[in-house]
Amino acid sequence: MKVTLVQPPNLQRSGKWKKQNVYRTPTNLALLAAYVRHFNHEVRICDLDIEGGTVAEMAENLLSDNPLVVGFTCLTPRYPIIVDISEKLKELNPNIIIVVGGQHVSGLPKHILKKDIIDYAIQGEAEESFLEFLNRLESGKSMDDLSNLIYEKSGKLYINPCRSYIDNLDSLPFPAWDLLKLENYTDPAFYKGAHLGIITSRGCPFNCYFCASKVVWGRTVRLRSPENMVQEIREAVEVYKINEFMFYDDTFTLNKKRILQFCEMMENSGLEIRFYAQIRVDTIDKELALRLKKIGCFAVAIGVESGNEKILKEMGKSLTKDNIRNGCKALKDADMPFLASFIIGHPGDTHETIHETLHFADELDADQAKFMIATPYPGTRFFDLAVEKGLIPEEGAEDLGDHTYFQHVAANLSEISDEDLLKYQQDAFDEYDKRKRPLV
Ligand code: B12
Ligand code: SF4
Questions:
Q1: Lowest CB count within 10 Å: 16, 62, 361, 422, which one?
Q2: Is the pLDDT score of 264 beyond 60?
Q3: Other Cβ atoms closer than 10 A to 163
């Protein structure tokens, strides 16, 4: 079956973000493509974030090689543009089958389909269900009992239960990088050339109220083996000539033993790479930071979120300010640059607690820092709370398009005004822009 997988455009590329030239690989689509291609489906990936165009041009681009199915990956802010493009696709070719997957679908399964526009959605981990979906379309078999599928029949919505997670992540094929124009994936503030996003684990065991990781992966963690990680890196370096990477894992260092083994294997591999990863402060010490540095880690990102002990406790992150101080000290001792992210506008945040957060940022003295405004993504406790308080509608997912972190307040559960939150964010960004230490 001929299928085009689509990364929709990122509409945050306006104003100051437009100039940034930052593009990340749609690794999820490259993984799905590799999986279904293995079973003889014909796949193209179209990254509209890079290819651009008006809605009509994007739709024409997607139809240019006559696919039977178009599949979009969907982050919440991109849902509205997916609906617009799909509408145009159906106008140009009423027989095209449109399916959507990704975090937004998994967080809000009840509100994804659009009559005569979005036909199907697949929630959760999707490799196996997407393959089965294409197989059934091809053979004309009923979709009724297909796990993870969301569909409509005789005006009724069906949300089928999810199948169990893939046990052995090493069994998955490596992403189909040959389907992307890899030279486009740049980020000059981090990387010297093109880079790839690699994911080596799925899931996070913690329960932060604002985090959407669990909507796709649940709360259990599955890990790829160090051998398999090194193999993927070797292929990227030797076949695709790319030696810079971003690990998309929620917490790259969650399992210290695995990462130490990975370090050892990389040291012996003869591969020279540069990479960046997200970690938690309680999963790093000086020894590990030094080992990571030795194999090419040029920086790590940590989520600090707040400088107020009570807010930290209520957040579900299981970290105290001392945990954070210790982790940052280990990174500094190892001379490992780090980026810290903070959230302004937590439920219950006051002027005092936000000042504590800003002072804590000063104390930690990260190489770079970002300050986000708390935003309720579907499937999170924050989303449920915001709906419960009537601040956002659960239905009408199209209105969620503005849920983004820069200079926008989607649902304010803090004790201060929207204007004050926006001002704190802008001032903090401006201040840290002046101080940040370069990574390249
Ligand atoms: C890399 C990344 C990005 C990249 C690129 C995302 C991309 N398209 O690949 C960039 C930097 C652009 C990005 C931006 C943002 N991100 Co982000 N990002 C991630 C990250 C770290 C990894 C994504 C990934 O590749 N995962 C691995 C793959 C294999 O998993 P997956 O994407 O879920 O895909 C599986 C299924 O969902 C499904 N699937 C996915 N797509 C499709 C398509 C079809 C057709 C089908 C059938 C199935 C399917 O199959 C896949 C394989 O099983 C995740 C964290 C995470 N835990 O996933 C956050 C995450 C996705 N991001 C998140 C957020 C909040 C954002 C931002 C809104 C942040 C912000 N403050 O601005 C922006 C959105 C910008 C915008 N305007 O769109 C949230 C999701 C919230 C939401 N509902 O949208 C996550 C989950 C982080 C979190 N822990 O909360 N992000
Ligand atoms: S620790 Fe990180 S990935 Fe895990 S739930 Fe919290 S924010 Fe999400």
A1: 16
A2: yes
A3: 15
Give CA–CA dist 347/402, Å, rounded: 19
Domain that holds residue 7: 2-159
Cα-to-chain-centroid distance, residue 324: 23
List the residue whose alpha carbon is closest to atom 66 of ligand 1: 75
**Residue 13: its pLDDT value, please?**
63
| 430, containing H or E segment | helix 418-435
Within 187-255, residue ranges assigned H as helices are: 213-217, 226-238
Looking at 140, 159, 178, the residue that finishes a domain is 159
The whole-number pLDDT of residue 130 equals 98
Indicate which CATH number applies to the domain containing 383: 3.80.30.20
Q: Does the global pTM surpass 0.90?
A: yes
- The closest-lying atom of ligand 1 relative to the alpha carbon of residue 25 is 9
Beta carbons of 55 and 91 less than 8 angstroms apart: no
Q: Is the CB of 216 under 6 A from ligand 1?
A: yes
- At 394, the pLDDT band (50, 70, 90 cuts) reads confident
Give the model confidence (pLDDT) of 293-344 as tens digits.
999 999 999 999 999 999 999 999 999 999 999 999 999 999 999 999 999 9
- Residue that is written with structure tokens 């003295």 in the block: 365
Element (H, E) at 265: helix 256-269
How far from 150 is each of 86, 153, 239, 297, 362, CA to CA, in Å?
17, 10, 38, 40, 47
> What pLDDT was estimated at residue 21?
82
Is residue 415 within 8 A of residue 346, CB to CB? The reply is: no
Which residue has a Cα nearest atom 23 of ligand 1? 248
Taking CA atoms, 68 is separated from 48, 89, 327, 346, in Å, by 18, 11, 50, 45
Which of 119, 140, 159 delimits the end of a domain? 159
